[in-house]
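for the recovery benchmark. tokens below, seq after
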């Protein structure tokens, strides 16, 4: 997957490219990142990249000409076999994206990600240059970079060859529409709390059943909205009912 990022702060992306799973994927060339900095397309002697909003008010907007030049350079840089790359703008005004959207976005060959700074960008740039405006949550960041990095990291996990079988995306929360079950490591007893016996039993079928049940239970407690949304099959409904009965007997 080829990603071109339009950003005033390309160095921020070292958090993604230098560390952990995403860093390894970049080093292996499974994901290729290129940066287009509007500052390099600024023509005036101060290389200004911000500008005042019409109508007044506090704050600045991104200066239009360098931003458009950077977006167009990013698009042209991706041309060559991949067809037309979508231009995605990260903003709190965007469509909220979730797991399923990541799975879909992750299949694309290439993409331009536009990161805003200051109070945002001129609306005509959105109309003329942006194909999709997306949000990673109802909160405001100091700029689009951290949102773009979150999106890229999540997409990287779905690239073939990035995760081994051990930690495949199949095991992740949301893959089956549910939260992950609780996990435990050593010590076997911690502050008087024991690891659930079944996990020490060596009975793989019993462990799998327990995990499904705990996954349903955790989702029911923490994210009842996901239980509503999910059509549970007969076996899942039975396990959840067992969980709820045991839970209510306890509390
Ligand atoms: C982008 C917030 C996507 C949430 C961009 C300030 C943003 C954001 N999701 N906040 N610039």
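predicted aa per position
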């Amino acid at each position: 997957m080829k990603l071109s990022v339009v950003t005033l702060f390309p160095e921020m992306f070292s958090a993604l490219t230098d560390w952990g799973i995403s860093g390894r994927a970049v080093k292996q060339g499974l994901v290729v990142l290129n940066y287009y900095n509007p500052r390099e397309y600024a023509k005036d002697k101060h290389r200004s990249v911000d500008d005042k909003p019409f109508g007044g008010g506090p704050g600045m907007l991104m200066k239009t000409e360098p931003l458009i030049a950077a977006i167009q350079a990013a698009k042209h840089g991706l041309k060559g076999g991949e067809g037309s790359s979508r231009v995605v703008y990260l903003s709190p005004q965007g469509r909220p994206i979730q797991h399923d959207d990541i799975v879909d976005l992750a299949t694309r060959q290439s993409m331009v990600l536009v990161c805003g700074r200051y109070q945002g960008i001129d609306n005509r740039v959105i109309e003329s240059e942006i194909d999709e405006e997306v949000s990673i949550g109802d909160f405001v960041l100091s700029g689009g970079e951290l949102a773009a990095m979150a999106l890229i990291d999540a997409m990287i996990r779905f690239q073939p060859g990035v995760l081994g079988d051990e930690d495949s995306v199949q095991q992740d929360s949301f893959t089956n529409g549910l939260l992950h079950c609780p996990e435990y490591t050593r010590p076997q007893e911690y502050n008087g709390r024991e690891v659930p016996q079944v996990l020490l039993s060596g009975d793989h079928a019993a462990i799998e059943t327990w995990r499904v049940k705990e996954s349903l239970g955790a989702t029911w407690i923490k994210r009842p909205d996901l239980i509503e949304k999910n059509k549970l099959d007969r076996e899942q409904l039975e396990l959840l009912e067992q969980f709820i009965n045991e839970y209510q007997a306890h509390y």
